[in-house]
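Project outcomes to date are best conveyed with an example. Our students and postdoctoral researchers have been running inverse folding experiments weekly, and each run begins with a structure described purely in tokens. The record below, which covers 96 residues, was selected by the lab manager from last quarter's runs and is presented without edits.
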């Protein structure tokens, strides 16, 4: 059973990852990524999809043209877990 981040670890995550903000009304992290065009955004989403499939951890996301909005949480932990931290760092590594 994956554990929810402690309050301290959660605060540390948001401090270390300024692109991510607390979601409204739920224990989740949100960010928006902007790409050159839809082609680049789709390439990003394709890479994230492969990560999600490999790690059995899936984003909630919305895409319009070159913008991708992502929300991460761990349903099994009813909040943010290390899986979300790892996935956020992977997504940050793909920012243009
Ligand atoms: N994705 N973001 C996220 N959070 C989860 O808890 C999760 C998931 N993908 C699959 C998954 N859990 C499975 O382990 C089942 O719990 C659905």
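After processing, the design step wrote out the following sequence:
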């Amino acid at each position: 059973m994956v554990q929810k981040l402690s309050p301290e670890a959660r605060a540390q995550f948001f401090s270390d990852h300024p692109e991510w903000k607390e979601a409204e009304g739920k224990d989740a992290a949100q960010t928006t990524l902007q790409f050159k065009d839809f082609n680049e955004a789709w390439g990003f989403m394709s890479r994230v999809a492969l990560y999600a499939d490999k790690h059995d951890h899936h984003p909630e996301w919305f895409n319009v043209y070159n913008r991708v909005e992502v929300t991460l949480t761990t349903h099994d932990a009813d909040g943010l877990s290390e899986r979300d931290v790892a996935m956020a760092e992977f997504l940050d590594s793909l920012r243009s």
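Residues 56-58, 73-76 surround 7,8-dihydrobiopterin (CB under 6 Å). The chain is about 40% helix and 20% strand. The training component of this project remains on track.
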